[in-house]
């Protein structure tokens, strides 16, 4: 144990565990509130509050301890059915959790905090003491009766204190002169870091005998929640019961110890020559995938290196091809050419592995919303079922971080504007309890996230009014547009149909920002809505941002890369066809694409590149952006290729070195070391 | 005394210095290709690939509004690190490293060709004056 600093290990374990516990309590509370919780949920929360109390007391964080203690008291009353859960209690509980979270975040940052928890503790205590109070808004439990203490006692009697087959097998190899004992140790439920305790116990026992096996096997790696109490040990030793008992009992926080001699020693009096540790081998029983925590910067560095490697790999393969053409018969060249496919394969595998290491499940983002929806719904007197589906869907961590704001905005909107008040829903003969579904799933190389509500839907009439009011378009123009097109206006800057500014939304940040943010992630956002039925936002995102398939084009001396995911079709237009396919209407050029007139954007003109007009033919690249289609005109195509995206975000933007450059989202380094500029379709289309 | 060491380079007739602590490397142009960035401000010469790192290059002549000069074999890119980001500056030629003790420094004169905000001080030596640049200010403090 003296090999590492217990304090440090304890501290970081403490922080990690309490964080998990706080989060779990929060989720359980939401379950309870929705009536989905049962007796077990309450027990769960109780256990966690208890262990937070224990852990913070051990670490000497008094506020945390006092707070969790009072929460625990409240819970025990609830558990014993002396108090029924109601909205007040849950609200108070959430307040407590918030404070715990705050303290925790300060502790993990190593900051001091100023917090007065006395008032809150009084509030909790008054709830606890007021057990006879009549209760409103009662929430039912799917209770399935009382269990615990009594059952627990039975459990202890039924403790399996015989050797298992597996253990028997291990014991066969043990020298006959040793006694073999099976020890069952029950630790206090609230023992913090049981794995450390277990380690101490085993470590101590090694002083008096051989530990043959333990159950759980690799106990060092098991966190408190999963730690199976009791902890069982099989030991071979010459010592007596008493000595073993004393040895174990020297460790604190142990509730009970059972020891049974399962094999008597055959020869007496001889001493063990040396103490050999038979390690508890990892065997087939092990199910968990072992994981380690890694500094994100290391993964990023790795990704960068892999990116570099891929660039050079492409280059190498090109050289190999050329060599093959030039010196077909040279044995060295043949050798080189034969190993290149391996390099190629390894490169691809490397890339995929590193990319997958960067993938994280969406739940870290999704989990923050139930609480938000709950609070918003309560404030605006709405009743909402918030359902999350597919939160295990994985996506690049770079994207995850950028998703919080757009999703928050859309979900806020849904609660605030989408869902009607209870009275309104009643009037409309709708179910009083509204529903919002947040879901995620993989679709080909995309992640699709949907936010769907069954609220009042978006009123096309209201949008039209607003468009005219804000001078975004003329009435005649609107006549020509379909509802689908009109609805797109909600993504225009400065558009907000909220009738009044509320605390919840209408802070001047609109859906245009959502669209821009999603666009920055190379994603698209669409909206579908049906009056009185509800609204659905669909966000489509690439799986990863770092490496994409792109079409390279050349304009003048510049090379551009257009993400393949946005390209619908590439069409070659011969000189004599230009006139019949591309028409000029005033300032606008349109391209005749399958009898549909779509806006033409010349890449050269957009980037102010002087064209040499020797090339009479041209290419039209039809790109899609949400519902719209555009025709990009380019002079030369260089081909399709995988590119590694390098962000220039540090230099692009208002007041930054490169200024607010539009139309470029980043660069990529090509095989020969030169750059391709990655075209930002969303911003080009905006003009 | 690295604190008082300056990399001295020239732009036209004048000599300028950058504190050596800010400089990460100096590159010849023949080893590095500068790629233009469409629609970037005029003083941005382009970007370079510095061992996989994307580094923007500022043309100091343009930034200081001193007449143009073609790139030649003496042209250098001095890579400086500002806020953990590499930025290249394009200069006519790099001379030597000079040491200026406190007493050899004076305040910038008022009648100089470039914005006096950019000058942290003037170093005086027998051969003449070296304008010591406040490189953070030159690059506008415009890097995140």
Summarize the structure.
Helix content of chain A is 42%, strand content 23%. Chain A has 687 residues and is α+β, with helices and mostly antiparallel strands.
Task: Describe the protein.
The complex is a heterodimer of chains A (687) and B (144). Chain A is of the alpha+beta class. Chain A folds into 5 domains: 6-144, HPT domain (Four Helix Bundle (Hemerythrin (Met), subunit A), Up-down Bundle); 150-263, Alpha-Beta Plaits; 296-357; 362-542, Histidine kinase-like ATPase, C-terminal domain (Heat Shock Protein 90, 2-Layer Sandwich); 547-686, CheA-289, Domain 4 (OB fold (Dihydrolipoamide Acetyltransferase, E2P)). Chain A is built from 22 helices and 22 strands. The longest helix of chain A has 31 residues, at 296-326. Chain B has one domain (2-138): OB fold (Dihydrolipoamide Acetyltransferase, E2P), CATH 2.40.50. Chain B has a 6-stranded mixed sheet. In chain B, strand 6 and strand 7 (85-91) form a beta hairpin. Chain B is globular and about 45 Å long. The chains are: A alpha+beta (687), B mainly beta (144). Chains A and B meet through helix 10 and strand 21 of A and strand 4 and strand 5 of B.
């Amino acid at each position: 144990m003296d090999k590492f600093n217990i304090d440090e290990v304890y501290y970081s374990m403490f922080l990690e565990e309490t964080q998990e516990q706080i989060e779990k309590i929060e989720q359980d509370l939401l379950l309870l509130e929705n009536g989905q919780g049962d007796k077990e949920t309450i027990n769960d929360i109780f256990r966690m509050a208890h262990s937070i109390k224990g852990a913070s007391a051990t670490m000497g964080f008094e506020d945390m301890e006092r707070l969790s203690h009072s929460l625990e008291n409240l819970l025990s009353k609830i558990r014993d059915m002396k108090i029924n859960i109601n909205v007040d209690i849950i609200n108070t509980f959430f307040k407590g959790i918030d404070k715990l979270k705050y303290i925790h975040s300060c502790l993990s940052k190593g900051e001091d905090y100023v917090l007065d928890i006395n008032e809150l503790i009084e509030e909790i205590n008054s709830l606890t003491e007021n057990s006879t109070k009549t209760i409103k808004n009662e929430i039912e439990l799917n209770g399935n009766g009382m269990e615990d203490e009594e059952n627990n006692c039975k459990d202890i009697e039924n403790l399996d204190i015989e050797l298992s087959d597996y253990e028997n097998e291990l014991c066969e190899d043990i020298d006959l002169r040793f006694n073999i004992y099976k020890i069952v140790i029950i630790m206090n439920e609230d023992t913090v870091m049981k794995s450390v305790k277990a380690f101490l116990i085993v470590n101590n026992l090694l002083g008096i005998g051989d530990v043959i096996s333990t159950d759980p096997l690799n106990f060092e790696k098991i966190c408190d929640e999963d730690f199976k109490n009791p902890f069982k040990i099989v030991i071979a030793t010459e010592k007596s019961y008493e000595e073993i008992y004393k040895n174990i009992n020297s460790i604190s926080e142990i509730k009970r110890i059972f020891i049974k001699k399962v094999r008597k020693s055959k020869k007496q009096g001889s001493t063990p020559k040396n103490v050999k540790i038979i390690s508890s081998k990892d065997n087939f029983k092990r199910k968990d995938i072992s994981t380690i925590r890694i500094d994100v910067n290391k993964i990023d560095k790795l990704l960068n290196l892999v990116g570099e490697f891929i660039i050079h790999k492409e280059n190498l393969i090109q050289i190999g091809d050329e060599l093959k053409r030039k010196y077909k018969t040279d044995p060295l060249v043949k050798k080189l050419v034969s190993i290149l496919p391996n390099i190629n394969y390894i490169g691809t595998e490397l890339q995929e592995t590193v990319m997958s290491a960067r993938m994280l499940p969406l739940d870290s983002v999704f989990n923050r919303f139930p609480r938000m929806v709950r609070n918003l719904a309560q404030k605006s007197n709405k009743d909402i079922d918030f359902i999350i589906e597919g939160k295990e869907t994985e996506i690049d961590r770079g994207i995850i971080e950028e998703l919080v704001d757009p999703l928050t905005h859309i979900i806020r909107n849904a609660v605030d504007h989408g869902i009607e008040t209870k009275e309104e829903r009643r009037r409309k003969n709708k179910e009083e309890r509204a529903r919002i579904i947040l879901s995620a799933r993989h679709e080909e190389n995309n992640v699709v996230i949907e936010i769907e509500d069954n609220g009042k839907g978006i009123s096309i009439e209201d949008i039209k009014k607003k468009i005219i009011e804000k001078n975004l378009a003329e009435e005649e123009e609107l006549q020509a547009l379909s509802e689908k097109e009109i609805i797109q206006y909600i993504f225009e800057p400065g558009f907000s149909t909220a009738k009044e500014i509320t605390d919840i939304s209408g802070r001047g940040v609109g859906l245009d920002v959502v669209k821009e943010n999603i666009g920055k992630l190379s994603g698209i956002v669409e909206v579908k809505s049906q009056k009185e039925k509800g609204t659905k936002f669909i966000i489509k995102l690439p799986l990863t941002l770092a490496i994409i398939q792109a079409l390279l084009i050349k304009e003048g001396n510049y090379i551009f890369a257009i993400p393949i995911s946005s390209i619908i079709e590439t069409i070659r237009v011969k000189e004599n066809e230009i006139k019949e396919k591309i028409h000029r209407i005033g300032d606008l050029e349109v391209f005749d694409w399958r009898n549909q007139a779509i806006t033409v954007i010349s890449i050269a003109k957009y980037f102010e590149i002087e064209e040499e007009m020797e090339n009479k033919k041209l290419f039209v690249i039809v790109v899609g952006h949400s519902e719209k289609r555009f025709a990009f005109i380019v002079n030369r195509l260089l081909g399709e290729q995988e590119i590694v995206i390098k962000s220039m975000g540090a230099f692009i933007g208002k007041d930054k070195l490169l200024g607010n450059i539009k139309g470029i989202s980043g660069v990529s380094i090509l095989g020969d070391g030169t750059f391709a500029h990655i075209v930002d379709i969303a911003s080009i289309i905006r003009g | 005394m690295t604190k008082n060491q300056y990399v001295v380079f020239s732009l036209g007739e004048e000599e300028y210095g950058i504190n050596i602590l800010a400089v990460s490397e100096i590159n010849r142009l023949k080893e590095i290709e500068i790629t233009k960035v469409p629609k970037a401000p005029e003083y941005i010469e382009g970007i370079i690939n510095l061992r996989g790192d994307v580094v923007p290059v500022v043309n100091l002549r343009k930034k200081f509004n001193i007449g143009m000069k073609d790139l030649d074999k003496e042209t250098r890119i001095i890579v400086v690190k500002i806020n953990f980001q590499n930025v290249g500056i394009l200069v006519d030629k790099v001379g030597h490293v000079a040491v200026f003790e406190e007493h050899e420094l004076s305040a910038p004169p008022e009648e100089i060709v470039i914005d006096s905000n950019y000058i942290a001080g003037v170093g005086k030596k027998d051969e003449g004056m070296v304008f010591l640049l406040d490189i953070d200010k030159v690059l506008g403090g415009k890097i995140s």
